[in-house]
Amino acid sequence: MNILVFATSITAPEEVKAVKPILKAVRSIKEWNFDLEDSDNILRVVTNGLSPRYIETLLQNAGFKCLELD
User: Fold this and answer.
1) pLDDT classification of 70: cutoffs 50, 70, 90
2) Are 52 and 69 in contact (CB under 8 A)?
3) What range does the domain containing 17 cover?
4) How many domains is the chain built from?
5) What percent of the chain is modeled with pLDDT above 90?
6) Which of 42, 23, 41, 39 shows the shortest CA–CA distance to 31?
7) Where would I find the H helices in 1-70?
8) Taken in order 23, 56, 43, 45, is the CA torsion positive or negative?
9) Is pLDDT of 27 > 90?
10) Whole-structure pTM value
11) 46 and 31 in contact (C-beta within 8 Å)?
12) Between the CA atoms of 50, 48, 3 and 67, what dihedral angle is there, to the nearest 10 degrees?
């Protein structure tokens, strides 16, 4: 399992609800959560083999900024 960490433009619980079905639909995502208290509005994803670019593209297609953090 890999833990991927992203900075996002998601700032509100309503926006988290908007992306929830998108993230839940991906079988390779085992767990995910947002830390909206963090200045980077962190998204953490536990996955088995997905590339960071795939997650970035998912959120970008939904209208949000998403960039993997080192």
Assistant:
1) confident
2) no
3) 2-68
4) 1
5) 96
6) 23
7) 13-24, 52-61
8) positive
9) yes
10) 0.94
11) yes
12) 10
Q: What is the pLDDT of residue 41?
A: 98
Hey, what are 45's tokens?
Answer: 């994803």
Contact 29, 63 (CB under 8 A): no
Distance of CA 57 to the CA centre of its chain: 10
Query: Which secondary-structure segment (H or E) carries 2?
Result: strand 2-8
Residue 38 in contact with residue 70, Cβ under 8 Å? no
Q: What is the dihedral of CA 40, 13, 18, 30, to 10 degrees?
A: 70
What pLDDT score does 56 carry? Answer: 98
For 37-64, write each residue's pLDDT tens digit: 999 999 999 999 899 999 999 999 999 9
For residue 27, what is the domain's CATH number? 3.30.70.100
Q: Say if CB 23 and CB 32 are below 8 A apart.
A: yes
